[in-house]
Amino acid sequence: MSHHVTFNDLPQGGEKFEPAKGGKLIGSLGLVGLLGLIASGYFFFARTDTFAYSWLFAVFFTFTFVVGGCFWILLHSASNSSWGVAVRRIWENLANMILAMGIMATPLLIPAVQKPLYEWMNHHRAAAEHAHHDHSTVKEALHHMTVGDEAKKIEANPHLHILVEKFGYLNISNHFLPPFSWQVRFVLYFLILWHIARTLRGKSLKQEQDGDIKHTIAARAFSCRWLLFYALTVTFASVDWLMSLDYNWFSTMWGVYIFAGCAWASMALSILVLTWLRGLGYLNKVVTDEHYHLMGKLLFAFTVFWGYIAFSQYFLIWYANITEETRFYLTRNTEAWRGVSIFIVVGHFVGPFLLLLSQPRKKNPVVVSLVCIWILFMHLVDIYWNVIPERGPSLGLGYWVPGAWVQDLAALCAVFGTMGFLYLRGLAKYSLYPWRDPRLIESVNVVN
Least C-beta-crowded within 10 Å: which of 83, 95, 333, 437? Predict the structure, then answer.
């Protein structure tokens, strides 16, 4: 862009996306999603135990993008940044996919799906039956299962005492007593993220009516207050859905590890959506190579941050050498999973780190978009590596379950395809950028 852009250079009312222009991609995602849903429906009834892991993997992978979108609008508002105004609507739309995401995640509330995923829930349900007959509490019944004669009748499990110790948080019965049951927290996570996303987009849309800076100030105050709730939501969601797949395991860095991946992958997806829209003729007046450079810098920053957190988690567990902690990495260093672990180190950190070092590469939309495609692939591998290795040992099927990758692919197509279809269709609801934001011109003319 060769001259200083003013409001007079931009179209009145912003730019509205016409889904017909992106019909090929939107239609393809819709078709992939539909076929995935049909296949997933079959696997849900035919192989519920193995498919439960597939669905959790697909749901959590897609969930990370929505969570990441929420983070970027919170950070953008809280830090009072102006450069991102031109691309903010992409994050707003991404974050507001949270309710659709909640619907896709609903199968995780079904006991038949929970049974193969969360072994601790089966122990809690057995304890609840005993508590009902003995007129005691679930925690007391769980305790008796570990020390009394009932333990020999039910199941010999020396690790059940851990469940007693964790009962205050890890339970499915204390629905109304903080920190609430697993199911209540499940719903709360979506409600909190929905409140954040809906409020911030609401203020952004109100500004399009009057152009008043007060909406920007209100969004900043709101974001500063809700960043803490956001951080807690992401942390506890990752603990409930992934860490509790093995109730013996724990890591104090788990929440940050997942968050780093969310921010990293959602920024990569945002760049790809931006490039796709510009290819269709949108946003070319408000987005420049400087925006790619800035977004590429954040991509690089979170590449390093993820590497730091991933290494720190591994190093601390290796150094402490506690049995309950090391099992996580032992499983992922067995048989073919060892190769996947090494591949993640190289592909998730080393490759993007080297590629994003160069300023010209970050400013080049084609090059940085190719890097983003690779980043999305590595994020997929990372989430797969975190979820799927638990499937074989938990179900007694070995470390690799033959043919189960078909179920994983079906679930991924169902969730990611459907959400992608809905997201791109949703871009048509409002202008692709907040056209009356007083700082829009500052963003359009940004130089760094």
Answer: 333
